[in-house]
Design brief:
Helix content: 55-70%
CATH topology of the largest domain: Arc Repressor Mutant, subunit A
CATH superfamily of the largest domain: Winged helix-like DNA-binding domain superfamily/Winged helix DNA-binding domain
Radius of gyration: 27 Å
Oligomer: single chain
Structural class: mainly alpha
CATH class of the largest domain: Mainly Alpha
Order of helices and strands: EEEHHHHHHHHHH
CATH architecture of the largest domain: Orthogonal Bundle
Number of helices: 10
Strand order of the largest sheet: 1-2-3
Largest sheet: 3 strands, antiparallel
């Protein structure tokens, strides 16, 4: 197929139009690197290869833009790229490349989130659920939770201070007990904390 026209499009793209009416959209830098000019001849295989490389470059550029604004796991970043209509192969290749460059590190990010959960007074059970829903694997979450400084006594104290002081003052000890158990704290730790709170009062 003979390339008839090259036209600059919005963003970092150019549109290649071929004799016979076909056209494709390519990354601008790729077009420059390949020294593509009007009048060049292309086979279907060459066009397919160019499209694949262009899609990957665009996906990688989008991924960098996303990472500049939020901390994503590898899985979540892949999902964001797919949601932005990049094909699966390009999205996978882009996330793997950024992982190789150290720009995505699920283990390090999970440890950061685990520490945040510990500081906020969450139980390990609640923290596990929170991290898992962010896109980390179960093994990565378990490993991260082992490195974080979870303190049940302190966590329960934080939760009571933040959410349950009024209920305890109103004598709703059993409701507070049940709520803390649902959050993943152990029965013995909750009983001890509530007993200490009652004695203090």
């Amino acid at each position: 197929m003979r390339l008839e026209n090259i036209r600059r499009e919005k963003g970092h793209a150019v549109r290649l139009s071929f004799e016979g009416g076909g056209n494709v959209l390519l990354d601008l830098d790729l077009c420059a690197e390949k020294c593509i000019h009007e009048g060049d001849e292309f086979s279907e295989a060459q066009i397919k290869e160019l499209l694949s490389e262009s899609e990957y470059r665009r996906a990688k550029s989008r991924a960098l833009w996303l990472l500049d604004r939020y901390r994503y796991t590898e899985r979540r970043l892949f999902e964001k790229l797919r949601a932005a209509n990049f094909d699966a192969a390009a999205a996978k290749r882009a996330t793997e490349r950024l992982k190789e460059l150290g720009l995505i590190n699920d283990e390090s990010l999970a440890e950061q989130y685990a520490e945040e959960c510990a500081r906020r007074g969450m139980s390990k059970k609640e923290a596990f659920a929170r991290l898992y829903t962010k896109g980390f694997s179960a093994d990565t979450v378990k490993s991260a939770l082992e490195t974080a400084d979870f303190d049940e006594e302190n966590g329960i104290a934080v939760q009571i201070e933040k959410k349950y002081k009024a209920k305890l003052a109103a004598g709703e000890t059993q409701k507070v007990y049940a709520a803390l158990i649902r959050k993943g704290f152990s029965h013995s730790a909750v009983r001890a904390a509530l007993k200490t709170t009652e004695n203090d009062e």
